[in-house]
Amino acid sequence: MKIAVAKYTIDAPESFAAFADKQARWLGEARAAGAELAVLPEYLSLELGATFGADVSGNLHASLGATQAYHGAWLELFALLAREMRMHVVAGTFLLDTGVGRYRNRSYVFAPDGSHAWQDKLRLTAFEKQAGVIEPGDALKVLETGGVRSAVAVCYDSEFPLPVRAQCEAGARLLLVPTCTDSEAGATRVRVGCMARALENRCFVAQAVTAGAAPWSPALDTNTGEAALIAPMDVGLPSDGLLVQTRGAQRWATANLDFEALEASRAQAQVANDRDWYSQYFPSVSRARVEAFGAGAPSVGRKHA
């Protein structure tokens, strides 16, 4: 399967139509490159805040409320583009009102027939907590995407091993990670999380990022990072884990992911973190204890690494 991940430049669209034209252009580039699945970044819906003018776009709460008017058109737009381009589309995230003035950071995934599923972000960053109106999701999902089981981990979620492990135990072999980071440290944390999840679970990871500056938005003001496709670091796979990543002004990183080869690599693995995961679960490591230094030989039965 050929996958494309976006280094998506934030703009200030004047209307939903302008935003829709941009999505068609960007996804058209991915399709022209042969992509069967394309990933756009987190907070994509907040770009639409610019359509309401400075009083709204400069206020996060006002932007969240105003952009709800576009939710139906958003679903129609990406369903249409997925059908027209005959590919799966991860439409970044839309911050959706749950009906009580609180919002979930929802990543919609569209199939080539125009149908869709979603995964909500499960853990909130400090920025999201401080906003006071964003709430976490409460369910993990795994999706069938073109014969490959995939799962979504929205940005910060990629830094936590257990939920992703549960998705991989349900058959996911491709982790889709729409992200938005405003600092080098943030970009590094998410990248390390993505690489760790690939290592632990022997899965591919597809990370999309935001790029450029949007001083008119409190959420999209500064953007840092490179989009990348990541593999486990093992025999027959890149030693640094990077299949491909964007550089400079490059808008998409694309690569063919060979899932049969990924499965076959288990047989010749130098390490098998995925298979050895359960070896972590034994009584003596359920809780660590503080122990004083002492003289003499180790006690019988004590294991030392």
UniProtKB/TrEMBL annotation:
Coiled coil: none annotated. Residues 1-259 form the CN hydrolase domain. It holds the Pfam family CN_hydrolase. PROSITE patterns: CN_HYDROLASE (PS50263). InterPro entries: C-N_Hydrolase (IPR003010), C-N_Hydrolase_sf (IPR036526). CDD domains: nitrilase_Rim1_like (cd07574). This is Nitrilase. It comes from Montanilutibacter psychrotolerans.
